[in-house]
Amino acid sequence: MLAALADRETAVFSDRLNHASIVDGVRLSGAQVHRYRHLDLDQLEELLRSSSAERKLIVTDTIFSMDGDVAPLAELVELKNSYGALLVIDDAHGGGVFGRNGEGYAHELGLADEIELTIGTFSKAFGAYGAYVTASRALVDQLISSCRTLIYSTALPPSVVASVDAAIELVRVAGDRREALRKKSTHFRTRLAGLGFDTGASTTQIVPAIVGASERRSSWRGRSRSAVSWPSQSARRPSGGQARIRFSLLASHLDDDLELALEALEDVV
Ligand SMILES: Cc1ncc(COP(=O)(O)O)c(C=O)c1O
Q1: What pLDDT, in 10s, does the model give residues 161-176?
Q2: Contact 43 CB / ligand 1 (< 6 Å)
Q3: Where in the chain is the domain with CATH 3.40.640.10?
Q4: Which of 47, 72, 204, 240: CA 20 to 30 A from 215?
Q5: Could you tell me if the CB of 61 is within 6 A of ligand 1?
Q6: Residue 207 near residue 199, CB atoms below 8 Å
Q7: Each residue of 64-87: pLDDT tens digit?
Q8: What contacts 116, CB < 8 A, 6 or more positions away?
């Protein structure tokens, strides 16, 4: 999608912690890339101001996949309006989880109409496979006729499309699950913090337990693994001191199981 929207004449402004798929999409487009410090609107504005590119595009995750913090969408809308840029959001972790009917994070904030293009996945809250783009009819038509990775790849099998279709109906009426997930996430985060873990700026269902040096993280995970099946992945950041165990909570996690995970963590602490 990014390769269809941006070219060598385009300046793309990308949050440093955007998902790898955005990094690769921008590379594929050949656009000039300006990476701004995570959530740093001042630096973004400085970069926008000093760019003489004719076409500008700001791209960001909505919910950051390793940190569980959120992009300041209202401010990004203001900036893109001031500098005549397009705003593209990756709502992989927002789709199904936020918005009254699970439409996503921009809907939650009442900003959906202000954002030129949203990409989301059917692989997370929708429990299926594939991805979606929402944009104006004109932009969607442009993508369908110019997006090479769409044109030159096999379409999703009908069985997958049928799963997605069914999932959309389920997600639409899953308000109770969204509420349950919110509560579980807040509780889990509070308990982790109570155990002395740094959960960063997470406010969502993605909750990191930042443990500092990678060696410590590996040994913690190893020591706890036998005790509990983790609702988590561990990750190593290239820069020092940011290794973490990353929890991605589900509405279907049982309170008892989360408690077991917390107890195992407590043992390790
Ligand atoms: C922000 C973000 N964008 C895109 C993706 C890719 O989603 P998929 O694996 O469904 O292609 C992910 C998956 O982790 C993600 O976190």
Answers
A1: 999 999 999 999 999 9
A2: no
A3: 2-172
A4: 204
A5: yes
A6: yes
A7: 999 999 999 999 999 999 999 999
A8: 86, 87, 88, 135, 136, 139
Q: What local confidence, expressed as pLDDT, does residue 267 receive?
A: 87
**DSSP symbol at 253:** S
> Is 6 in contact with 12 (CB distance < 8 Å)?
yes
Domain 2-172 = CATH 3.40.640.10? yes
Which residue has the CA at smallest separation from atom 9 of ligand 1? Answer: 123
- Among protein residues, the one whose CA lies closest to atom 12 of ligand 1: 92
User: pTM for the complete prediction?
Assistant: 0.92
Nearest ligand 1 atom, CA 129: 10
Strand partners, 168: none
- Among 3.90.1150.10, 3.90.1010.10, 3.30.390.80, 3.40.630.10, name the CATH number for the domain at 175-268: 3.90.1150.10
Q: What is the pLDDT of residue 211?
A: 82
User: In 151-260, which ranges are E strands?
Assistant: 206-212, 232-235, 243-248
